[in-house]
Amino acid sequence: MEDYKFLFKVVLVGNAGVGKTCLVRRFTQGLFPPGQGATIGVDFMIKTVEVENEKIKLQIWDTAGQERFRSITQSYYRSAHALILVYDISSQPTFDCLPDWLREIEEYASNKVLRILVGNKIDREDREIPTHVGEDFAQRHGMYFLETSAKEAENVERLFMEIAAELMEQARCKELPRYEQNTTSINGKTTAIGDSNSCGCSRFT
Amino acid sequence: MPTINESSLIEDNLTNDLHKLQEDEVIVNQQLDQILMRHCHVEAKLQSIRKVLPNVAVVKAETEKFRDMIHHTNILAEKVSAKVRQLDLARSRVCECQSRVNDILDLQLCCEGVATALENEDYEQGAAHVHRFLLMDQQLLEKTADDVSGDHSSVTSSLATLQQAANNLRQVVDQKFDEAVKGEDLASVERFFKIFPLLGMYNEGITKFCSYLAIKLQVTSQKNLKAALDTRITDKRASVIYADTLTLLFEGIARIIEVHQPIIETYYGPGRLLTCAGILQKECDNQVKKIVFEFMKHRAISRKVQLINEHLRKQGVEKLEPKDLDILLSELTLMHARAELYNKFLRRRVFNDIEISTTDEQHRASLKNDFETIMKNSELARSMQELLGAYLALERYFMEESINKAIGMDALDQDQQTSSMIDDTFFIVKKCVKRSISSGSIDGVCAVINMACGLLENELSSQLKSRLRQGYPAGYLDLAQAYNALQTSFQHGRIQTSDTELARLMFLAYLNNAETSIEYVETLSRNLKIDIEQAFPNMQTKEKGKIESCLAGMKNVTFTLRTVVDYGLEQLRSSAIKPRINPWVDSFLTINHEADEEEILRHETDESFVQTLVMNLDGLLQVFKNSLMESNYNALIGILTTEVTIRLEKVIFKSSFNKIGGTILDNEIRALSNYFTSSTSWTVRDKFIRLQQIATILSVDKVEDVTEFCATDSISWRLSSAEVKKILLLRTDFRQEDIKRLKI
């Protein structure tokens, strides 16, 4: 048996070339490999982190951004605990595609999934999307928001660690009603887990 | 003044010191004795040294002589080896000189030979001369000629002639090769192909030759595609004609490599296959593009995918029949599988060639990387990714619609415990995942497993649960009647859903369905793991991880199904068990538990409470025994036992007993416990412990006897002292004060 208390699946989505693979590489291997080729299908990395002395295994699925891989990547949405939607702050088109991505998330992902909007490449000088625009978008769609730079290792660790902490807290909130469900009679009503805010744990500020 | 005490103390000290001094003296004496004893020995040694001393001088003189000798020898050896070295150098110069003389001689020979060969159009001979010439060090030759005679005009002119001849020959061969290609003169093509390396034109030769092969490939492939397009729909292979065409293309390339690799290796040396594969891959890309284009067009892939998407978003009116997609799905996976096979073949061949061409690990890695880049960026890869995408979209639709159909056509057979949808659904899921395995794509397999998990967890589980949510209809149940109703309704082609009997049977079947599904999911997951490991024997760790993670999704499906089973059992408890057993157990209250022996004798012929209860329970269980699968049936007995014991305990506390009544109860509970134990393989005896202990207390002779039980085995004693007293109070023949006074 592996030594971890929780296992969470995190799936990264977003247009091709916004830096999903770089974010994952930066976090899992501490690298920023330049001249990275396009991801084919899905890539898969594991990193175990520690939050409040609990070992958490993060299974990170890095998906290909190109349209022709959509059937493959969509199949991973349903079982994801967290979905990271990435755009490139120096590229308006990647931001303009966000609504399409959201539609896809609505269609395939669980409605309980933790959704995070990430504006990557803040090391770039030629910013096209101001921070507050991204922030507004995230707020309108009930997502957490963070701006990162995989190149400069800015906010990358934080992004994944806060996802881990948030998911752990959600899992703990869920544990209680689940336990009750087993001991008392099952009345057919699943206990509403509600959104994470009910747990009083809003971390992405 | 020192006191007497002090002075005696000083005296003591002095005595101690004296003793110590005496001891020391003894030790010193001993040591002195030892030293004196050694005197003799030392004398003897000194004597012998004195004897040896003159010899040492002799040895020294001899040694010096020896040293001088070695020194001389050393100098001599160095002189000799220097001469040998000189000799060696001289010899190698002679060799070099010889080869240069040979070169010069050959130069003349080649010079004349080339001219005649060109004249005679004997290109092989000419090229052989040029090849010989190219092996010479031209600058050195010129210099040698200069040194020797001061006149190097003949050598220079020869060199110039040969240079000229080489260039001529190159041009001619180049031209002749092109002509041979144009004239489709295979013999000439091969003839000139062999001449290129002799002229040092390795790259030109490979490029030209492979381009020629590529043209051949193009012609064949186009012919094949045309034949494919002309194939009649009635043809046996019509349904997989594009997969066949693609296969022919790949096989064509494989054959080209198979046939020409040995020739290339013989005339050009190893390490040329990468260039070769690059050129052939380009043509392969062109042809794949054409074939896939025709495939997409004629099989109307985009339209189908669009219809599916519209259906998914509930916009479309037109609906695809999933069964019609079956063959197309096979063709798609076949095409993808062939491409994977081709890819593997090419990689193996090129990598082997790279391995033998260089020993430099870094160079090898970079060459292999070049190959991977070619393949990764090829049109073939792109096309296959697109095909896989289309396949997955269609497969998802196929699986979902087929499962929905299986659920829609659900039927219950009298001698089956589950309804038809379970076997059908799992047949479909298995078929789809297996098909994905045949595509040769790990990502494809993972995606289909993910889809299957989603469908089982959503469509199937929710269907099972919604039926169970309708509950188990209460009322009298006669199973034979229910089957008859079911039978007639099927015969008449109508299902009377209002029919309670049918609803009950369906409820039980769905409970079994859920339980069976868990078993099926576990088996499926296990078997798929084996199938995948067999289909992909060389998986990398990462790919294994992907598969494992996706298969773990199956575990979540079983969790969901388990909650469905629990939910169904709970429904059964609340609607079928509780309302039925409560009145049966409650009849306990109508019985007099304080009867004297006479009265009991009078009623002996009557049926006891437990006999009636067991009969009723047996009747109730008979209903479920055949309709529920064993594990569900056992779970039901577990629930039944719990309910009966709880209810019985309640009514006991509402009754009053005398000694005889208590003893009768004790026997009755034993009988009831035996009944339950014999009707299931599960352990239910545990659930009777409290009741048995209550009955034991109710059947004691004296209040004080109770202390014995409470004291003896306290571990399995389930009653608190307050409860014990409460139970004793049920005995009307005991006095309250005695019970109160009891210390337990």
UniProtKB/TrEMBL annotation, chain A:
Q: How does it sit in the membrane?
A: Lipid-anchor
Name under which the protein is recorded:
Ras-related protein Rab-30
Q: What does this protein do?
A: The small GTPases Rab are key regulators of intracellular membrane trafficking, from the formation of transport vesicles to their fusion with membranes. Rabs cycle between an inactive GDP-bound form and an active GTP-bound form that is able to recruit to membranes different sets of downstream effectors directly responsible for vesicle formation, movement, tethering and fusion. RAB30 is required for maintaining the structural integrity of the Golgi apparatus, possibly by mediating interactions with cytoplasmic scaffolding proteins.
Q: What is its main location?
A: membrane
Give the family per the record.
Belongs to the small GTPase superfamily. Rab family.
Location of this chain's protein in the cell = Cytoplasmic vesicle, Autophagosome membrane; Golgi apparatus, cis-Golgi network; Golgi apparatus, trans-Golgi network membrane; Lysosome
Source species, domain of life: Eukaryota
Q: Name one GO cellular component term.
A: cytoplasmic vesicle
From TrEMBL, chain B:
- Where is the protein localized? Golgi apparatus membrane
What Pfam families has UniProt attached to this entry?
COG4_C, COG4_m, COG4_N
List each copy of the COG4 transport protein middle alpha-helical bundle domain by range: 162-469
Q: Which GO terms describe its cellular component?
A: Golgi membrane
One example of a Gene Ontology biological process annotation = protein transport
Which InterPro entries does the UniProt record give? COG4, COG4_C, COG4_M, COG4_N
Q: Among its keywords, does the record have Cytoplasm?
A: no
Q: Which domain of life is it from?
A: Eukaryota
Membrane disposition: Peripheral membrane protein
* Gene3D superfamilies in UniProt: 1.20.58.1970, ESAT-6-like (1.10.287.1060)
Q: Which UniProt keywords apply?
A: Golgi apparatus, Membrane, Protein transport, Transport
Q: Per the similarity annotation, which family is this? A: Belongs to the COG4 family.
Which protein is depicted?
A: Conserved oligomeric Golgi complex subunit 4
**Which source organism does the UniProt entry give?**
Trichogramma kaykai
